[in-house]
Amino acid sequence: MKPHVPTGLFIPSNLEDEETMTYEDFLDMLKEKANEELGFELDKMTFYPKGYTSMDPQTREWINDCNRRFSGDKSGTLSDGILMEDFLSMETPLGGISAEHRIATAKMYEDALAHGFDHAFRNISELQKNLQAADVKQEQLYQRNSGNYEKIRPHLIIRPLNFQLHQQELKGCVYRAVGDFVLCLYHLISDENQMLITSKIKREEIREWGMENREAKIIDDAIENTARIYPACVYDSRKGKEADFLSGEFTEKDITIMGQLLLSTFKTTNGAAAIFYPGVMQKMRKIIGGDFQVVFMNINDVMIFRKGNKMANYFAQSAKTSGKLGEMLSEKVYMCDGESLCLNGKTA
Predict the structure, then answer these.
(1) pLDDT less than 50: residues of the chain
(2) What is the model's pLDDT at position 50?
(3) Is 43 exposed, middle or buried (0-12, 13-18, 19+ CB in 10 A)?
(4) What are the residue ranges spanned by the domains of the chain?
(5) CA separation for the pair 162, 221 (Å, rounded)
(6) Is 138 within 8 Å of 94 (Cβ atoms)?
């Protein structure tokens, strides 16, 4: 497809001030700098304008995935196969990891006009730092491709994802479905200097490890790794996010129970996974004093409520609209008996 720039977004280009750069100039600068400074190849960049459509089923699926993840259009009723925002698609320059990076260029252009091009480009610069950090992890990539499961096993973790928002990218991936979200299997490449770098594991890879039909075992191993690397913690929901997280172990004496508490991980990253750590459901049941309700506020935080607490439904509704779209996990209230999560009496 020949890239072109959408109309209606241009401003006069006869001025030299950066704040009056045209959208076309901005896109050219963006591609050139991404190529020169970050190593993204120009022939692997494609611009897709708002309103772009295609009759190709795979492309339409990609378009709908963009709309779900970046525009919040989950139903797709009015936008099926019609792109709702401008995107620049770039393939990662890091060898060994296949990934597509999508940049919402119209929003980035507005940021550039308001704060300057370099400020807007910072988001991609942060991506490059991640790529550079990952580049030093080539040994892990070698282990991943070695065909030896025991070599890669210590580096596998799970990350929670809303299924509907991420259904396209989950195709061919290894995950465990839980109600309306999944626990996806990832390779933890690096988590240094506040930069988390992970890559999804494909089903074809576990066949190469000789672990075909053993996905449950692999995910269980990854959950144990995640619990070790990112210990679970709780804090009193009345205190807000104070610096009194309790790393690893927590007991009834550590918190004040007011019918609800917040569960996460010590780093808060992907803290919704903590409820699935070995022994955590049982500990929560003991602390709460019986069966409890679970609301996933986002991919990082889990609210725990005593059974029958009507606030659970209120929090579940707010989870749909609060926070970043890509971090929304579920809008349902789950029940837990200390062993498993249930929806409407059925195991999730």
Answers:
(1) 1-17, 75, 136, 237-248, 251, 254
(2) 92
(3) exposed
(4) 18-138, 147-229, 232-347
(5) 22
(6) no
Q: Which two tokens stand for residue 179?
A: 């109600």
Distance CA 325, CA 222 (A): 26
Q: Provide the token pair at 281.
A: 């459901």
CA gap 25, 18 in Å, rounded: 10
pLDDT digits (tens, 9 = 90+) for 204-257: 999 999 998 899 999 999 999 999 998 887 765 444 444 444 444 554 554 555
Q: Which residues pair with 99 in a beta bridge?
A: none
Measure the CA dihedral 314/318/319/324, to 10°.
-170
The pLDDT tens digits for 23-39 are 999 999 999 988 888 77
Nearest to 347 by CA among 333, 338, 335: 335
What pLDDT score does 245 carry?
Answer: 42
Task: Return the HEC string of the chain.
Answer: CCCCCCCCCCCCCCCCCHHHCCHHHHHHHHHHHHHHHHCCCHHHEEEECCCCECCCHHHHHHHHHHHHHHHCCCCCCCCCCECCCCEEEEECCCCCCCCEEEEEHHHHHHHHHHHCHHHHHHHHHHHHHHHHHHHCCHHHHHHHCCCCHHHHHHHEEEEEEEHHHHCCCCCCECEEEECCEEEEEEEEEEEECCEEEEEECEHHHHHHCCCCCCHHHHHHHHHHHHHHHCCEEEECCCCCCCCCCCCCCCCHHHCCCCCEEEEEECCCCCHHHHHHCCCHHHHHHHHHCCCEEEEECCCCCEEEEECCCCHHHHHHHHHCCCCCHHHCCCCCEEEECCCCEEECCEEC
Q: What type of residue sits at position 118?
A: D
pLDDT at 291 (0 to 100) = 92
**Torsion, CA 323, CA 328, CA 334, CA 340, rounded to 10:** -120
Give dist(CA 316, CA 331) in Å, integer. Answer: 5
pLDDT, residue 161, reads 94
